[in-house]
Amino acid sequence: MIDPVGATAAATATIDQSLKLIRRVTTAIDHYKHGNSRLEVVCKDLCSTIDTIELVEKLEALRTKGVLKAVANMLKHAKALDHHVERVKEKSSTGSSIRRMAYQFMSGPEELECTNKMVEELTALKATLILQIQVAHVGLIVEMDRERQNNSGCTHMLNSVVLNQVNQVVEQRLGKGKGLKIAEVLQGKKPDGDGMIRLTKEEYECLIFNSSADDDGKDQLGQGTIRVADNRTFDQALQINGFVDEGWKEFAQNLIIENNEARNQGIQVNVPIKKDVFDQLLAERRFTIQSIPGPGQWPQPPPMPMPQQQANGLPPVPPAWSYPPWPYYGHPGVIENANTPGYRTQAAMGGPERIAMHDK
């Protein structure tokens, strides 16, 4: 099962590191721009990117899988941009630090072009992040009360208080009309006395469609969620909970892996793996299973030691065992009806169970 505390800590670390790097780059370029209008535009774009990521830092309700994936992509580009700016600073060796940096950007057009390109890529990723923020289903939960669900026909609930608070902050940062799509769709629907907006199955499906429409249907929210759950591995079974190729990566945004179990010598794989790795796992598991004796089968005894020739013509010494013979080898005088070794004999190649169940 996915550790919620660990996942939250990892998400927070990604957000914090992204902000730290982009702020450092922005400070460096702002300090060294020295009236360069192109660098001023770069600073403006970087500041806008910082503002967007700060939204995710401030509002935990926005930290959906899609939003966190977008921030993680921005972190990769932020690292590359930070490395580039540091390299530009190190290439200059004369004059004051401000003049060195400004001179390097103005005299070396390739440096400025490279910086512009990297910032443009970061800005494009910022647009993706904004889209993920806008389509986030803030405050949406499943109706757990089965009796109420049967009586009213509502399958989902939405906390209107949380939704309005988050939407207000998002619009303040991104601009009027650029808030959460879910708030726009449900604008005319009044909450109940407990502040919850209840949705029928049809309303929920329309909500997903409207929320992902601005992404030309590419947003994973419109494609449902793959849930890999409640699979078990016992004895020597091998369990693969996913695709045996690289194709599973495209579903990482809406992939839930939970409540799967592996015990004893079982192998469980919950991530995409390549075909050659899968074949290797199968070969190793097949070898392990074949080496385990089946019912009524005994392990082969070690070879009998060869008799040693006694000197001076005396009769040979009887064979000497390095350890006592096992009682079930069938040698004369041993105890009969001995217990069998503690090997389990059942083995199964377990495949995915209830995988790719699409939640609508």
Structure commentary:
The chain is mainly α and 360 residues long. It is built from ten helices and ten strands. A three-stranded antiparallel sheet has the order 1-2-3. It has a three-stranded parallel sheet with strand order 9-6-10, with no helix packed on it. It has a two-stranded parallel ribbon with strand order 4-7.
**What is the domain total for the residues?**
3
Termini Cα gap:
22 Å
Number of helices: 10
Largest sheet: 3 strands, antiparallel
Rg calculated over all Cα atoms: 32 Å
Strand content: 5-15%
Care to count the β-strands?
Answer: 10
User: Ranges with pLDDT <50 over ≥5 residues?
Assistant: 209-224, 321-360
Strand order of the largest sheet: 1-2-3
**Which sequence of SSEs, written as H and E, runs from N to C?**
HHHHHEHEHHEHEEEEEEHE
Shape: flat
Query: Strand pairing plus helix content: what structural class?
Result: mainly alpha
Mean pLDDT value: 68
Helix content: 40-55%
Spell out the key features of this protein.
360 residues; 3-stranded parallel β-sheet; single chain; 3-stranded antiparallel β-sheet; 9% strand; mainly alpha
Summarize the structure.
By secondary structure, this protein is mainly alpha-helical. The chain has helices at residues 4-32, 37-58, 65-91, 97-107, 109-134, 146-152, 160-174, 181-185, 201-212, 275-290, and strands spanning 140-142, 154-159, 196-200, 226-229, 232-233, 238-240, 255-258, 261-262, 267-269, 349-350.
SSE topology sketch:
Elements: H1 4-32, H2 37-58, H3 65-91, H4 97-107, H5 109-134, E1 140-142, H6 146-152, E2 154-159, H7 160-174, H8 181-185, E3 196-200, H9 201-212, E4 226-229, E5 232-233, E6 238-240, E7 255-258, E8 261-262, E9 267-269, H10 275-290, E10 349-350
